[in-house]
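Reviewer 2 asked us to include a model.

Predict the structure of this chain.
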Amino acid sequence: VQLVESGGGLVQPGGSLRLSCAASGFGMDYYAIGWFRQAPGKEREGVSCITFVTGSTYYADSVKGRFTISRDNAKNTVYLQMNSLKPEDTAVYFCATSCSGLPDDAWGQGTQVTVSS
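Predicted model (structure tokens):
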């Protein structure tokens, strides 16, 4: 069971990035998938989540209207489209196999997102 994030990078304020969370070793379509982030010196926080039954989506207030989560079960991948990025979005972004981000979940290694001019 493995999750691999990709798509991070350096972007200017107002720019966009699309993160991918690809699963191997299991069918992602039976799991809720959550995106989390951790900035230096701060606790990890939930960013967004998509459920597996209804495809319902959830967003932190800080990213509502700017980020969009989606899933492609055929590709076993969940995406996080991030628009109108702000410096405060700078963090390492992780995906995990739940909306709660529990220690027993499968976690990816993270991808760095840096928003800076």
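Strands lie at 2-6, 9-11, 17-24, 33-38, 45-50, 57-59, 67-72, 77-82, 91-96, 111-115. The first strand starts at residue 2 and ends at 6. We have added this to the supplementary material.
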